[in-house]
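Let's do one together. I've listed all components of the complex below, 994 residues spread over two lines.
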Amino acid sequence: MKQENNIYRDSRNYAPIDVAKGMDLRTKKIVLADETDPNFELLPKCKNCVNFKPDSEKIEIGTCEASMNDPKFTAYPDMVAVTCAMYKEKK
Amino acid sequence: MAKKLKEIMTESGQSLEFQSGGQAPETMVDREVKKEPHPRVKKLKDIYMDTLSSANNEFPYWYSREYFMHDGEIPVVRRAQALKCAFSHLTPVIYPGELLCMHKAAFFRGSFPMPWLSEGYYMAKEDEFYQEALERGATSVDEHSKFGQGGGNVVKSFGKVVSIAGKFGMRQEEIPVLLELAKMWYGKSVDDLGHKYEKMVPEYETKEKIMRNIVCMFDSGFTLPQGREVINYYYPLEYGFDGIIAIAKEMKDKVAGKADGDGMVGMNRLYNYEAVILAIEGVQNWISNYVKEARRLENLEEDPQQKQEYREMAERLEWIAHNPPRTFIEAFQMIETLHMAVLNEDAISGMSPGRIGQILYPYFEQDIEAGRLTEDQALELLELDRIVKTSIDCFASMGVVGGVLSGNTFNTVSVGGLNKEGKSAANRLEYLILESAASNAMPQSTIALLYDEKLPEDFLMLAAEVIKTGSGYPAFMNNRVAQEFMMRQYGPEGMNVVDTRAWAIGGCLETSACVWKPLHVNGKEYWIPGGAGQPTSVGVHFVSMPKVLELTLFNGLDARTGERVFKAHDKKLDTYEELWEQFKLYWQETVYALDLTNNIQHDVWRKNNMAIINSMMKPDCLDKGHLINELGYRYNATFNVESAGTITCVNSLAALKKLVYDDKKVTLDEMKEALKDNFGFKSAREINSFSLMDQEKDENSGKWDELHFATLQAPKYGNDDLYVDSILLDWENFFCPDCQNYESLYGHPMYPCQISVSTHGAMGAASVASADGRLDGTTFADASMSAYPGTDRNGPFALLNSAAIWDHSMSQNSQLNIKIHPTAIKGVEGSRKLLDLIRAYMRKGGFHVQFNIVDSKVLRDAQQNPQNYRDLMVRVAGFTQYWVEIGKQVQDELIARTEYEGV
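Okay, and this is what the predicted structure of the assembly comes out as:
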């Protein structure tokens, strides 16, 4: 799956240093979080997961359909999901 | 041209920026000792220096999601389930060059909110919950607290980064979920529930007025409920995580369904052991996720050395996730992991590693002997540890993180002291700790040297050399005085003289209870010290003595806000004795109200938010099956009463005694009028600066000139003058025993804690002028034993005599900061002089002294050109901080302090 802008903070090839910048893990250079990553590799995030259902009434908020909570628990599209066993990438 | 306070003080003979014992050179003098860290360390340090304090919602998201799924579960198990889930989902992040890894959050300098503790302070301003929170007295302090404008503080929003509480940056994309999670905890957090029940205390209204008028700096139970204590790494080092789980499982079988004579909490042991197992499993999952990340990076990496380092890192982490460490680097990684795990469990400042040189020594000794480690490699790891510790942030409100902590989190390391047999405990690894503190001078870990006459001379000389780097550490703490305090406070709980020797500093300078435990490494036994007491600096936080005096003078009214805080005493205060007696009564009323309300906050904390990971590490929780909330710790009499503004108050009492009562130069009413008129100066608010240096005289007012001059000339603490020092003695002889009249929620009497951290800035900002000549809104004297800037004029030994007039072992601590020009202690001879000065104070019975070795001209230049001084460090109260990360009012107070040109 290809991201619209292929920015670093959505890429696996990136170690965030802070909210604004991080390190390109291939070149070891410090890069801006919102810069385009030439070696972009999709980072699992809720927005890329089939279980994420956006809330049309709210900004940057949805629900995780895989949650065991009743009702289904809140989720947010930008959350990194590399440790989530329920993550399933959208095709 | 309006006159500045600085000029007027000079005319009165008590100048700000006073140079005592000589004249500083006209040119700027740099610090004498400068060292560089290893190249690997330098690279990572460079990253840190350009890193913003960053926060995200990963941990609170998973914690909340799991917590709300288990409604009805036993509270301790429910909390452990939430912790396990949160740890298991933290995103691992490893940076090239790291040897010690694992971060609080997925940033180099990361942290996150804990809405289960408190959520109101970071809600959007238009939000109704935030508005409701604003009405509470506790939020007043945020208005009087300022962060430094540089360094890693995100003081303003920019681009897609939102500034929270003036310090933390959070991505715009995460703000909606930040608020969504906060709303889930509304009415359920420790802050909210505590508030609900503290209102039932009859003294609640008084407490609210106390908070609103900054008589007290902040609440205790929901701000930083743990910390100012020494962690204990013993059990994981001895048994490993799998070993602890095995112990807990075995104990579960033994205690299930049994009260064993304890009808109150005996049955709880089953749930507590279950909670320990769950929390440890969470930490193991967290480590395992780092193993996977290290393996992923190993596969990605092309550089052979870096590739190997990732592989070795993965192997180390894989081992310590289950087993006791075998080597120095494994043990170091394990204590680093444990430290971060505990800090992620709760909002904590001052979780001190303690005597890590003695804890890690067994591994160091064996690795050196076996040729697995060189001293240079150990030094490099110690340098790296300083980056790890300096990167620790604590997400809390502006008032707490800015006004009190100045952004520091006080992960203090202690060196020296005595071993179990009463001999010097200094070892070769501790020499390397001191060397690393010089070669990689960063604010943390601050070093506390537990001074004893038995410590080797070359160890103390090395410490003096480190002080000369200008880092502000090591601070010297008196081992003899601390042991006496320990016996006094913890003797009733069974502490003996051998365990008093295990003490270390928790937080910046809180004397903390520890014990010895036998560690076995490769078949050899070593006795290592570790924390065994509950958090300190909890209970009654920072009560402003000058403010209580102000309330006494103005019949219970706050002279700044006009609000009635206490019922009017309606006394004429015709004599000094009557003034003193009333001051003590208001003080007691303040402490009493705060004790009761804060006990409730802590009680809510212990019911729903108890420590599990920190608890299971502390003796004797694993043995007894009780955690912190059920008195599982060996020592529980740790709650205290904190004073602030001691010397400003003592000087003010001396001026009142001299000018109003003894010499009758002025009436009390005239003095009060002068205080309200700020001695004819413009108000700090009017000139929009609370800094000492900026205060301006109102050109049209000459009415109070003579009186102001007289107040400045009245006897001042720090000159070996019994007139004023005896007032300090009276205060200490009242305050220290009085603390025992208040009881903590754990049923133990309290004790005094005398540090100021950064409260002298924020509390001064909320107080009108004082009778010592200090102006409205300006800082108090810092610490508890430091002289007011420019008023200690008889040399350092006179200052030491003044400070040592009382028995410091009655208190958990005292705090004395001295500023010395680098040329005054130049060379080996200078180091000896510095050591002689320290020894003299310790022999007199002083508890603590620390130094800023800096040319004031450098500080002034740094204020003008902060871009040139990103790495300049100063000693503020009990901690070291980057100059650019502290607020201007405290910067100015540091510049104004007396600079000793000779010792």
